[in-house]
TrEMBL record:
GO terms for biological process: ephrin receptor signaling pathway. The keyword Repeat applies. Keywords: ANK repeat, Repeat. This is Ankyrin repeat and sterile alpha motif domain-containing protein 1B. Gene3D superfamilies: Ankyrin repeat-containing domain. GO terms for molecular function: ephrin receptor binding. The lineage of its organism: Eukaryota, Metazoa, Chordata, Craniata, Vertebrata. GO terms for cellular component: cytosol. ANK repeats lie at residues 16-48, 49-81. PANTHER family: ANKYRIN REPEAT AND STERILE ALPHA MOTIF DOMAIN-CONTAINING PROTEIN 1 (PTHR24174), ANKYRIN REPEAT AND STERILE ALPHA MOTIF DOMAIN-CONTAINING PROTEIN 1B (PTHR24174:SF3). InterPro entries: ANKS1/Caskin, Ankyrin_rpt, Ankyrin_rpt-contain_sf.
């Protein structure tokens, strides 16, 4: 399995600027997130709208992936750069706006 990952660019991006880590975070694929991070996927690559994988996991309401991304670091608290005022947010604001986070506490 290790040979499959060797030589691949785990930070490549599609036409929307999504890296494999963006896709995995957005779709709740915890094991894929962990594997990508193991092979040096960057948590600090923004998509074409300024969203980081942490934003996407927070919007999805996936606390486990949010924790993985925060603890993996380096993690910067950044505001995404979307032009629509209601979409400009930090990952925390995105998480609080997601109904699946209601009632969750640490």
């Amino acid at each position: 399995m290790r040979n499959i990952w060797r030589g691949l660019n785990v930070n490549c991006a599609d036409s929307s600027g999504y890296t494999p880590l963006h896709h995995a975070a957005l779709n709740g694929h915890r094991d894929v997130v962990l594997k990508l991070l193991q092979f040096e996927a960057s948590t600090n690559v923004a998509d074409s709208k300024g969203c980081f994988p942490l934003h996407l996991a927070a919007w999805r309401g996936d606390m486990e992936i949010v924790r993985i991304l925060i603890h993996h670091g380096p993690s910067h608290c950044r505001v995404n750069e979307q032009e629509h005022t209601f979409l400009v947010s930090t990952p925390l604001a995105a998480a609080l706006a997601t109904s699946s986070w209601r009632g969750v506490s640490d």
